[in-house]
Design a protein that fits this description.
mainly beta; about 45% strand; 16 strands; about 230 residues
Length: about 230
């Protein structure tokens, strides 16, 4: 017996939205500042690079990344948030402290050449045990949120400070509501830059650092001195 089988009607493939509708990027601000590291350079190659100076900015970044260089007292960076999918409302961005210890006292790195929009200026006081991004002394996201349509975004210009004798590491947590009103969180970890963005150290007395990368007599090159050589 012949039967008439019905074939399912052809349908267009379902539209799938990205699992995470937000793209968040942390961009370090450029500029000279004192740096510290928990590590000492020990290989002859790295020590020679410190003294003679890296031949390219990329080599210097590689060395700073290798020793996990950290800013003293303050970091400056921008957080760019972009919606790549359906509408969302960003309701909060939180720093999540993952480490708080004594200030780093191993290697001190002096800058050479001196100290060196349409973004939302905010500050972050890392001496606070539960810090928040603030504007004019008040938590920024307590007073407002950011509604983003597809393709829209915003940029926060962050000045993070730590004045005490501690060392702090953290990451960011972006809290947002999707178009149905459900809340989600996106974790933003430390970017792979030469100098840390989400870590900062307080300062100790100069004589307490095991190593010191300072300027030579010309002011154009470096010299690497141990604590014993400085005494």
């Amino acid at each position: 017996m012949l039967t008439d089988e019905k074939k399912p009607a052809a349908t267009a493939p379902p539209h799938t939205e990205p699992a995470v509708p937000l793209k968040v990027v942390a961009i370090p601000e450029k500029g000279g500042s004192f740096l510290v590291s928990e590590q000492r350079v020990t290989s002859p190659e790295d020590r020679a690079e410190v003294i003679r100076g890296a031949e390219t900015p990329e080599e210097w970044e590689r060395l700073l990344r290798k020793i996990k260089a950290t800013s003293i007292h303050m970091t400056a960076y921008k957080v760019a948030v972009t919606n790549v999918s359906s509408p969302v409302r960003v309701v909060d961005i939180l720093p999540v402290i993952t480490r708080r210890t004594a200030a780093i006292d191993t290697t001190l790195i002096e800058p050479l050449g001196g100290m060196a929009s349409n973004s939302i200026p905010v500050r972050l006081n890392l001496d606070n045990r539960y810090p928040k991004f603030t504007q004019n002394g008040k938590p920024y996201f307590t007073r407002q949120s950011q509604v983003l349509k597809a393709g829209e975004g915003f940029v926060m210009a962050v000045e993070a400070k730590l004045l005490g004798r501690e060392y702090v590491e953290y990451h960011l947590k972006v809290n947002y509501l999707d178009k149905k009103g459900s809340q989600h969180s996106l974790v933003v970890n430390e970017p792979g830059t030469g100098v840390g963005v989400f870590r900062v150290s307080g300062m100790v007395d100069d004589k307490e650092y095991a190593d010191y990368w300072g300027a030579d007599e010309s002011g154009q090159g470096r010299r690497l001195l141990s604590r014993e050589e400085r005494e």
